[in-house]
TrEMBL record:
Pfam families with a match to the protein in the record: Glycos_transf_2
Domain of life: Bacteria
Name listed for the protein in its UniProt record: SPBc2 prophage-derived glycosyltransferase SunS
InterPro entries: Glyco_trans_2-like, Nucleotide-diphossugar_trans
TM helices/strands, residue ranges: none
Molecular function (Gene Ontology), one example: glycosyltransferase activity
UniProt cross-references to Gene3D superfamilies, sorted A to Z: Spore Coat Polysaccharide Biosynthesis Protein SpsA, Chain A
Originating species: Neomoorella thermoacetica
Primary gene name: sunS
Keyword Membrane in annotation: no
SUPFAM superfamilies given in the database record: Nucleotide-diphospho-sugar transferases
Coiled coil: none
The EC number(s) this enzyme carries: 2.4.1.-
Domain Glycosyltransferase 2-like: 7-140
Length: 232
């Protein structure tokens, strides 16, 4: 079986979804490379409790200052494990359970060197996801999360402090397989987090360079205006 290395950046995730994410990844990933961005809670200890994890820690946080540099650091640590394939997930994202059966096929197929998945934003809980506006997984379409490591490709990111992407630019331009595996994104599942996440997003993008203003404002829409579908 080709070697799969998962990678992620974490910061203060101990009391959120990280443990579930790592348990899920441990089923099908050979290694999980984690760059801890100066957590002040028990996140590092939680990561280290998983045998598959290779943990690296920063003493000062970089995510809100220079995300592209942080992503490059994570990439360098990841490729040092000699992976054949690399999976880029965040600490609040889960591939659905059947990934344990599907991932081996995706790693063995030789028609594509990249695989795209749709991301579903759970909203106000885990049973429903948003389908209005740019939240719609069908309107947003597929994004590449799984790639075959190719040392000849440049490992460059756009020089952006925010929304720089989780994979090098060259990998995002590869022809890719559209997988029907879904990513369950839990970042908006807790109603108590929605307002502060809105403030953080707008604070980092006050001129609406990376997302339309209407999309940011839709974060705070009243429940009757939000369109949801049940996760099945």
């Amino acid at each position: 079986m080709p070697k799969l290395t998962a990678m992620m950046i974490v910061r203060n995730e101990a009391d959120r979804y990280l443990e579930r994410c790592l348990k899920s990844l441990s089923v099908y990933a050979d290694e999980i490379v984690i760059l801890d961005d100066a957590s002040t809670d028990a996140t590092p200890e939680l990561c280290a409790s998983f045998p598959a994890v290779k943990l690296y820690r920063r003493e000062t946080s970089l995510f809100l200052i220079d995300e592209s540099r942080l992503r490059r650091e994570l990439w360098d640590y990841t490729v040092a494990t000699n992976p054949e394939w690399i999976l880029a997930l965040d600490a609040d994202e889960l591939l659905e359970e059947r990934a344990a059966r599907e991932i081996p096929y995706l790693l063995r197929q030789d028609l594509f060197t990249a695989v795209g998945f749709r991301l579903f934003d759970c909203w106000g809980g885990e049973e429903y996801y948003r389908v209005d506006g740019l939240w719609s997984p069908w309107l947003r379409g597929f994004s590449i999360y799984l790639v075959k490591y190719q040392p000849n490709l440049p490992a460059a990111w756009p020089e952006q402090a925010f929304h720089c992407g989780r994979l090098p630019l060259a990998y995002r331009r590869l022809p890719y397989l559209e997988s029907d595996l879904r990513i369950k994104h839990l970042g908006w599942a807790n109603p108590a987090e929605i307002r502060w996440k809105y403030k953080r997003a707008v604070g980092r993008d006050p001129t609406f360079k990376y997302q339309p203003r209407e999309h940011y404002e839709s974060i705070l829409w009243p429940p009757e205006k939000i369109q949801l579908e049940k996760w099945r």
